[in-house]
Amino acid sequence: MEPIHDLAAETCPNNHQNILIQLGTKGKLDEGSPKESNESPLSSPSFDSDQQTYPEGGLQAWLVVFGAFCALGAVFGIINTSAVFESHLKKHQLSEYSESQIGWIFSLYLFLVFFIGIQVGPIFDAYGPRLLVLTGSLLMVASLMFLSISTEYYQIIMTYSVMGGLGGALLYCPAYGAIAHFFNAKRGLATGIATTAGGIGGIVFPLMLQPLLGKDGVGFAWSCRILGFVILFLCVIANLFIRNRLTSERRPKKCSVWPDFSILRHRGFACAAIGVFFTEWGLFVPLTYIISYAQSHGNGGIESSILLASLNAGSVLGRFLPGLLADYVGRFNVIIGTLSLCVITLLGIWLPAGNSKSLLFAFCTLFGFASGSNLGLIPVCIGQFCDCHNYGRYITVANMIASFGTLTSVPIGGAMLGLGGSTGWTGLILFSAIAYVMALSCYVCARVSSTGWKLWKRF
């Protein structure tokens, strides 16, 4: 069974023409004549020639994946550690603040990562990743160093949320976009491998921080600095290996650096972008509050950190295995299945879990697997609607829409805990589950609008 391919000859919203990428002699890229196509991504006759234009492997391509792995490990490893920071800040520096107020710290970080990306994507498409990755690296490291000396709420917001969020925005888009330049048929696998970094960071960082922040540890300041040095190491590797395949001479001549919302006229893409919003709306509530839930239901600090590690361990497998499967059975087909699994685990395991440690560990592992696949598959699902020249533009428009979900989800969850009393956790879990149901509906609509009601069609 052959892997499916992404749409390689799609209308460029800024050039108002289709660009067919063909392989020239000695591996060079040439622009073919514009042509119109209303065919689905899975049936375009350009696939045979398009498949040859992507390296689909080789040393340079896999080094790009490694560089993207390190960049995404820095950006999302930190947010996957938010439960540790949330628990510590609530007990120490921000003990007088509500759950909802503390939640804004992590939501603002994610909001800026995704929202600022709306401008980063077109710049990447036009000029490449070098300056973006370097600037993002400096901001990410500086944010943790300044966080180490922050004691007030506004200081933590400015360092962790604003500075870190800006740095993350400059890192994540080039990481995804560079992979799209080197892989087409194997893009799900390559992207899945790179996105496992966030899950691995979510395992390693909490296990590292928990003893450092403990009674016999080095304290909050040096814990942040140590984490900052780890992020510095990852960012150095990212700067060495992330690159794009298209030189300035080979990029489209009229590639604008400004966001282009006209791409939302594509019904399938618009549905998928709204689906990303609801996915992010539901995802970061469990990631942020799972440790607080465990502690409020009788589990100690060390045990709850292991709980978070099991969630991220499941996420590592979830980012890799479904990505591999998606290249063969369809990217949208797989993400629809994993979104369904998210709903099942939230309502069938976490909701009735109560004080049961076995159910909690089962939930963390299964939800980690299902939700991890969402993060790995979203970029390749968006890639179904565009060619590599415009990939940064498409993924950042989708994530800009999703940014409003990341901005509001954690504070909404915190407000539910603050107002709900003993029933607050039930409301929080139901909120996350409903968001996932909406995300599932959007992805089904995106698939149907692109392929019709053909149940077994690969897409």
From TrEMBL:
<keyword id="KW-1133">Transmembrane helix</keyword>
<feature type="transmembrane region" description="Helical">
    <location>
        <begin position="359"/>
        <end position="382"/>
    </location>
</feature>
<feature type="compositionally biased region" description="Basic and acidic residues">
    <location>
        <begin position="28"/>
        <end position="38"/>
    </location>
</feature>
<feature type="region of interest" description="Disordered">
    <location>
        <begin position="28"/>
        <end position="53"/>
    </location>
</feature>
<dbReference type="GO" id="GO:0022857">
    <property type="term" value="F:transmembrane transporter activity"/>
</dbReference>
<feature type="transmembrane region" description="Helical">
    <location>
        <begin position="220"/>
        <end position="242"/>
    </location>
</feature>
<feature type="transmembrane region" description="Helical">
    <location>
        <begin position="61"/>
        <end position="82"/>
    </location>
</feature>
<feature type="compositionally biased region" description="Polar residues">
    <location>
        <begin position="39"/>
        <end position="53"/>
    </location>
</feature>
<dbReference type="InterPro" id="IPR020846">
    <property type="entry name" value="MFS_dom"/>
</dbReference>
<feature type="transmembrane region" description="Helical">
    <location>
        <begin position="131"/>
        <end position="150"/>
    </location>
</feature>
<feature type="transmembrane region" description="Helical">
    <location>
        <begin position="189"/>
        <end position="208"/>
    </location>
</feature>
<dbReference type="GO" id="GO:0016020">
    <property type="term" value="C:membrane"/>
</dbReference>
<feature type="domain" description="Major facilitator superfamily (MFS) profile">
    <location>
        <begin position="61"/>
        <end position="450"/>
    </location>
</feature>
<comment type="similarity">
    <text>Belongs to the major facilitator superfamily. Monocarboxylate porter (TC 2.A.1.13) family.</text>
</comment>
<dbReference type="InterPro" id="IPR036259">
    <property type="entry name" value="MFS_trans_sf"/>
</dbReference>
<dbReference type="InterPro" id="IPR011701">
    <property type="entry name" value="MFS"/>
</dbReference>
<feature type="transmembrane region" description="Helical">
    <location>
        <begin position="306"/>
        <end position="325"/>
    </location>
</feature>
<dbReference type="InterPro" id="IPR050327">
    <property type="entry name" value="Proton-linked_MCT"/>
</dbReference>
<protein>
    <recommendedName>
        <fullName>Major facilitator superfamily (MFS) profile domain-containing protein</fullName>
    </recommendedName>
</protein>
<keyword id="KW-0812">Transmembrane</keyword>
<dbReference type="InterPro" id="IPR016435">
    <property type="entry name" value="DPH1/DPH2"/>
</dbReference>
<dbReference type="GO" id="GO:0017183">
    <property type="term" value="P:protein histidyl modification to diphthamide"/>
</dbReference>
<feature type="transmembrane region" description="Helical">
    <location>
        <begin position="156"/>
        <end position="177"/>
    </location>
</feature>
<feature type="transmembrane region" description="Helical">
    <location>
        <begin position="394"/>
        <end position="419"/>
    </location>
</feature>
<dbReference type="Pfam" id="PF07690">
    <property type="entry name" value="MFS_1"/>
</dbReference>
<keyword id="KW-0472">Membrane</keyword>
<feature type="transmembrane region" description="Helical">
    <location>
        <begin position="425"/>
        <end position="446"/>
    </location>
</feature>
<feature type="transmembrane region" description="Helical">
    <location>
        <begin position="102"/>
        <end position="124"/>
    </location>
</feature>
<feature type="transmembrane region" description="Helical">
    <location>
        <begin position="269"/>
        <end position="294"/>
    </location>
</feature>
<dbReference type="GO" id="GO:0090560">
    <property type="term" value="F:2-(3-amino-3-carboxypropyl)histidine synthase activity"/>
</dbReference>
<feature type="transmembrane region" description="Helical">
    <location>
        <begin position="332"/>
        <end position="353"/>
    </location>
</feature>
